[in-house]
Amino acid sequence: MSAFATVRRASAIANRLFVVWVLLFSGIALLYPPAFTWIDPYITPLLGVIMLGMGMTLQPADLQRLLERPRDVAIGALTQWLVMPVAAYGLTVVLSVPPSLALGIVLVGAAPGGTASNVMAYLGDGDVALSVAITTVTTIAAPLVMPAWVIFLVGEQLSVTFAALFGSIVQVVLVPVIAGATLRYVLDRRAPGVATKSVDIFPLLSVAAIVAIVAAVVAMSKSTILTVGAVVLLAVVVHNAIGLGTGYGVGRLTGMSEARSRTCAFEVGLQNSGLAVALATAHFSPAVALPAALFSVWHNVTGPALASYFSSSHQSSPSPVTADD
C-alpha cells in the first residue's frame, strides 16, 4: 500500500470515528489538563488550518451554484442567521446561564455553518451543491453577521469591539478560505494530481485540529465543567435540536424538495463551533469557549444520526444528492 493510500485510509477512519477521538481526548483532558492546556496559543492557527482545508474544497462551479439557486440559498442562510442567534440568547435567559457561558452560547449561535453540514448533507441524501453554497455564503458573511449579533445580544457584557471581532474573523476564516480556494484553483490547472491528494489529506488534518481544540478547551475549563457543565450541555442539546428541526421545517414550508429540506436542516443546525472557540479564547476566556467545544462534540453525534435516519427513509426522492428540482 502506498504512503498516500495509507493517509487516505487514515483520513477515512479519522472521520468515521471522529466522535470517539473527541470523547477520548476530552476525557484525558479532564483527568490530566496539563496534557492539553499548552495548545491554547495555537487554537487560532489550528482553526486557520481547518478553514484552509474548507477553501481547498471550493471550486468555481460552487460559486456558479450560488447564481443558479439564489432563493434556496437565501432561505437557508437567513434561517441560520435568524434562528440560531435568537434561540441561543433565549436559552441563556430561560436556563439562567452564567454570563460568561451565556456569551459562549451566543457565539455559537452567531457562527456560520461548518463543513460538517456538507458531509452530513451527502450522507443524508441531501442536496450537496446547495449545502456548499449556503456554507460559502454564511462563511463569507461571517465577519459582518457574527459580530453584529454578538454586540446586539450581549454587547453590554463585552469589552471587545465590533472592529476587533471583525478583524479576527477575517484573519481566521476569510483569509484561509480564500487562500485555500486560490490554491485549489492553481493546483487544478497546474498539478491536478496534487490537488486531489491535498483534498483527501485535509480531512485528516481537520479532524486532528478539531480534536486538539476541543481537548484544550476542556482542559482549561475543568472547574467550570464540574460545576455548571450540566446546564451548558442542556443548552447545547436544545440549541442544536432547534436548529435541525427549524431548518427542516422552514425548508418544507417554503416548498423546497425533500433533499433540499434535509440540507437546510444540516445547514441551520450544524455550526462552525471551531470559530466560536477561537474567538472565545482570543478575546475572552476558556469558560466562554466551553459551550462551543461541547457543541462541536454534540453536533457530531446528532448530525450523523440524522443523516443515517434520512438515508434510510423511504420518503427520499431518487438521486437526491444532486437534485436540482
Structure notes:
This protein has a single domain, classed as Na+/H+ antiporter like fold. Mean pLDDT is 84; it is low at 314-325. It is globular, with a radius of gyration of 19 Å. Helix 1 packs across helix 11, helix 6 (70-94) packs across helix 12 (222-253) and helix 9 (128-154) runs antiparallel to helix 10. The protein has 325 residues and is mostly helical. The chain is built from 15 helices and no strands. The chain has helices at residues 3-16, 18-31, 34-37, 43-56, 60-68, 70-94, 99-110, 116-123, 128-154, 162-190, 192-220, 222-253, 258-269, 273-283, 286-312.
Task: Using brief descriptors, characterize the structure shown.
Na+/H+ antiporter like fold, mainly alpha, about 325 residues, 15 helices, disordered C terminus, globular
Topology at a glance:
Layout (H helix, E strand, L loop, with lengths): L2 H14 L1 H14 L2 H4 L5 H14 L3 H9 L1 H25 L4 H12 L5 H8 L4 H27 L7 H29 L1 H29 L1 H32 L4 H12 L3 H11 L2 H27 L13
Helix pairs in contact: 1-11, 2-11, 4-10, 4-11, 5-9, 6-7, 6-9, 6-12, 6-13, 7-9, 7-14, 7-15, 8-9, 8-13, 8-15, 9-10, 9-13, 10-11, 10-14, 11-15, 12-13, 12-15, 14-15
Quick rundown:
With 325 residues, the protein is mainly α. It has helices spanning 3-16, 18-31, 34-37, 43-56, 60-68, 70-94, 99-110, 116-123, 128-154, 162-190, 192-220, 222-253, 258-269, 273-283, 286-312.
